[in-house]
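Q&A log
Question type: sequence-to-structure
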Amino acid sequence: MQRKGVTTAKAGSAVRGPEDTQAPRPFVPPVGTSRNVSVPLPGAVPRIEMNQGEPEHRHFPRAQLATHFDLWVEDDAGGRRFSAGLTSVNVSVSGAFLASTFFLPMGTVVRARFALEEGAAPVEARAEIVREERGPEEQGRSGFALRFLDFSGQTEVALARLFLGMRLRAFTEDYLKSQRARSLPNELERVIDVMAAWELLKATTPGDPWRGE
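Response status: OK
Response body:
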């Protein structure tokens, strides 16, 4: 049921957006996908790529990940004057690109909620529209990019784990087997020690852990 004063949009449908929203265009799928953007099977591992120049990703890598995004624009009273459900093409700690059939004005600040895997707690963020792509159908991509401005409830940790989780798990499991870790009196001291060892490794080893180096 749609509340009065709230405009909703779904990917692949022609809808009327908020004031200044430009007219919807026929959906153009991301490069290398079918005309319907599909969500990966549960448990599928997203493909991690280095940033290829998109400013919203800054120096962070990105994950080729199709997941559902709930977007909305708040009014002055904190209500929703526009909402939409879209699918991501890629996601990083600092931004995302969403396939879309409509475009909001550049610089629009939106609220976003999305989950990185089935059953996981959602990531909640405030984001700004920083880039759009309106290529012809033969180029295969249409949508806009978000740059995350801030997160709610430390949910950004879920994004960090997407890129660092496997390395951190391997490092932690190995370190906890050490004589030093076993000699510490409690779990908190072991956590602090692991964090200190990880930071020492980063400071003394060339490469960037975010890029798998």
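Response note: The first helix runs from residue 156 to 176.
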